[in-house]
C-alpha cells in the first residue's frame, strides 16, 4: 500500500481549511491545518509533513515571510495561495522559496494536480533521504559515520566516541537533514533499552552531541535550536553509500 503523503494547509479561514482537508482526503492525502505562523511551526514539529499549502495573507507573519523561513530551515515543498494575480506577486512568491503559486479562487482539482507535480519533483530528495537510512557509511560536512562499526570520524581524522543514544540521535538527524524535529519526535528516535536516566533528557543529549561536533569554535553549530519548536540538523552536505564501496 502506498504511503499517505501528509500535507499542512495554512490559512486563517477555518472553513476553507476544513473543506480543503476533506477534499484532499479523497486523493489519499492526510491534511493537517493551521491558522497562522505559530500554529504552522507547531504542526511542522508534530508531524512529518511532505508539503505545505500556504496562504499569503495571514495574521501576524505573512505567507511570503513564512515561506522564506521554511526554506531556510528545511527542504519541505511549499505551494503559495493568494488572491493576487500579478506576475510580480508570482515572482515574489517564487523568490521567497515557494515551489509553486496558485491564485484564488481556484479549482480544488487543480490544486491536487499541482500538489502531485510538486511532490514528484521533490521525490529525488525524498528517495535520497530514504537511501541514507540504509547507508553503511554517511559523509556529512567532512565527518564520516560508520553505522556498522558505530564509529564517528572527525574532519581531522580523529575518532569521536558516541554513546548508544548519541548514535541513534545522530542517525535520526542524518536521515533527514534540515528537517525540524520536535523534542518528542527525537525522544522516540533516541529511546533504547540501554538508555540511562541522564539520557532521558533530550536537551542534554542534543547538547552532548553538539559539543562533540563543535570542532571549530568559529563555525556555526551543526545542530540548530528552533525556539519553541525543537531542533534541526543543519549539515550542508550529507551523502551515504554502502560500506562495500569504501
Automatic annotation (TrEMBL):
Modified sites of kind 4-aspartylphosphate: 55
Q: Per the record, GO CC terms? A: cytosol; protein-DNA complex
Protein name according to UniProt: DNA-binding response regulator
Q: Which SMART domains match?
A: REC, Trans_reg_C
Q: Where is the OmpR/PhoB-type domain?
A: 135-235
UniProt DNA-binding region: 135-235
Q: Which organism is it from?
A: Rhodoferax fermentans
A Pfam family of the record is Response_reg
